[in-house]
Write a structure and sequence with these properties.
The complex is a heterodimer of chains A (245) and B (227).
Chain A lengths: L1 H25 L6 H23 L25 H6 L13 E5 L5 E3 L1 H6 L3 E8 L5 E10 H8 L7 E6 L5 E5 H4 L5 E6 L2 E2 L9 E3 L12 E7 L19
Parallel strand pairs in A: 1-10
Antiparallel strand pairs in A: 1-2, 3-4, 4-7, 5-6, 5-10, 7-8, 7-9
Chain B lengths: L9 E2 L3 H25 L33 H29 L12 H11 L14 H25 L5 H6 L3 H29 L2 H8 L1 E2 L8
Antiparallel strand pairs in B: 1-2
Classes of the chains: A alpha+beta (245), B mainly alpha (227).
């Protein structure tokens, strides 16, 4: 009897030791601290690899929806870093002088005005937007497939990634080549049949239904083909890099 | 009632079951806590503009701060997608062990357990005096342990459905689309929490000896038979 009781007490102690770290971890919304948080972020590269190499298919298309399924314009969330910092969207650029620059590991650097982009073969689809926060919204986007622009610039065999820069307070993104060349990845200049507004990233934003919203750079100014993996505004702050859905 | 000391001391839980049981407890807490942190980023269900009319005790409210793991959305995501690995691996080891060892027979609820489950329920409701005969686990326990494994499977599958709603579109459709899959993933949390509460309560009230059994493997309690 005493034996059993002593064991039980020791057992409770063991349980307590096991419960300790858990309650500590959950207390105060702990992020892992300066020791663990970077390790967790490093671990997420494994999930990036799984997302890119196992789940992703360059030919699988995201479902399209009827126009009637659209989320009302005013309910489709929009934000920008500039808006978060100043309460106003980035200034409207002068479309007469605005250009999109495509360069990096390419055989031919390309400069396109918004009129040039609108003259290229366009793609329009109504798709579901998945935000990392957990909400979804449906919208219609019109633009030029990024693969068509890549064909004009003719990237070299070294090019494995794309870096997209914007005019939005240092916002930028890195994409893997396969996702960027997906048939539904476009440089969009219209939302719900109207020219893109400043809230959605005018004059041109990246759009694709195969990535989370934070990968879809707004206010794009520059597309650079790179050998090294670029970071990203949110990715550098801890968000998963691949962000494919 | 037999004198406690007269009860035989028996080996009850194998090392694999004990290890996976306690690891699962740790990982489950971490999965739920980091999941609640992720939920904090959008505290509703359904698409923007047309919320789903589904019961949600946490609609418009984040989970309490102490219950969250990760500090902010990215921290929650990184914890969740890290812990998901050991959580799933532990579950696979546990289920594989049950299948390979034949232990599943004393745990899986089958149609023939239906009648014993009714008598067990009558006993608990005090409509029946005698404790029904049972093996390692009674029929209601089998129902509960089968349910919780099924819930684990559903929580993992619904997790994948909201992780890759385009690449795994068929799975997402199976759960009724992204918004509903996210909801079922969330409902699983409440069911896990309810199960755990009841599980701990019943262990302490009905068969406290099984707690020692789940830790050391040795059991000296009311239900020594091993079927």
């Amino acid at each position: 009897m005493t034996d059993a009781r002593r064991l039980t007490r020791r057992d409770w102690l063991r349980l307590g030791i096991a419960a300790g770290p858990i309650s500590l971890a959950t207390a105060c919304g702990w992020d892992g601290g300066p020791g663990l948080a970077p390790k967790l972020k490093a671990f997420s590269r494994l999930n990036d690899w799984v997302g890119e190499k196992i789940f992703f298919s360059s030919s699988r298309l995201a479902r399209q929806y009827p126009v009637s399924a659209r989320t009302p314009d005013q309910r489709f969330p929009a934000y920008s870093i500039t808006f978060n910092e100043t309460g106003a969207y980035p200034a409207v650029p002068d479309l007469r002088s605005w250009t999109l620059n495509v360069g990096g590991l390419v055989r031919k650097t390309v400069q396109l005005s918004r009129a040039d982009l609108e003259a290229l073969p366009r793609l329009t689809y109504t798709v579901k937007h998945h935000c990392v926060e957990g909400w979804t919204a449906i919208g219609t986007w019109t633009g030029v497939p990024l693969s068509a622009i890549a064909a004009m610039a003719d990237p070299t065999a070294d090019a494995r990634y794309l870096r997209l820069d914007s005019s939005d307070s240092g916002y930028y993104n890195g994409w893997d080549l396969a996702s960027a060349m997906h048939p539904q990845t476009i440089l969009a200049y219209a939302y719900n049949d109207r020219p893109l507004g400043m809230n959605h990233g005018a004059p041109v934003r990246l759009y694709s239904p195969i990535k989370l919203g934070y990968k879809l750079t707004k206010y794009v100014t520059k597309v650079t083909f790179t050998r090294e993996r670029p970071g990203g505004y949110w990715e550098d702050r801890g968000y998963p890099w691949f962000g494919g859905v | 009632m037999a004198e406690p000391l007269a009860r035989p001391l028996v080996r009850r839980y194998s090392a694999v079951v004990r290890l996976t049981h306690w690891l699962n407890a740790v990982f489950l807490v971490g999965m739920i806590a980091s999941g609640l942190q992720i939920y904090d980023a959008y505290v509703h269900f359904g698409p923007r503009g047309t919320p789903l009319p589904l019961p949600n005790p946490l609609d418009g409210t984040p989970a309490p701060h102490w219950a969250r793991l990760g500090g902010w959305l990215a921290g929650g995501l990184n914890w969740h997608f890290f812990l998901a690995w050991p959580f799933v691996i532990t579950g696979l080891v546990y289920v594989s062990f049950l299948v390979l060892s034949g232990e599943w027979r004393s745990l899986v609820f089958r149609p023939r357990d239906l009648r014993p489950a009714v008598s067990m329920q009558l006993y608990y409701l005090r409509l029946r005096k005698e404790h029904p005969e049972q093996g390692k686990h009674n029929a209601l326990q089998k129902a509960a342990y089968t349910f919780i494994v099924a819930l684990g499977v559903i929580s993992v599958l619904s997790g994948f459905a909201i992780y890759k709603p385009v690449q795994l579109g068929w799975l997402t459709t199976l759960f009724g689309g992204y918004e509903l899959a996210r909801y079922w993933h969330f409902v699983a949390v409440w069911l896990f929490a309810g199960f755990t509460l009841l599980h701990v309560l019943l262990v302490l009230l009905v068969d406290p000896a099984s707690l020692r059994g789940m830790i050391t493997g040795w059991y000296r309690g009311r239900f020594p038979s091993h079927d």
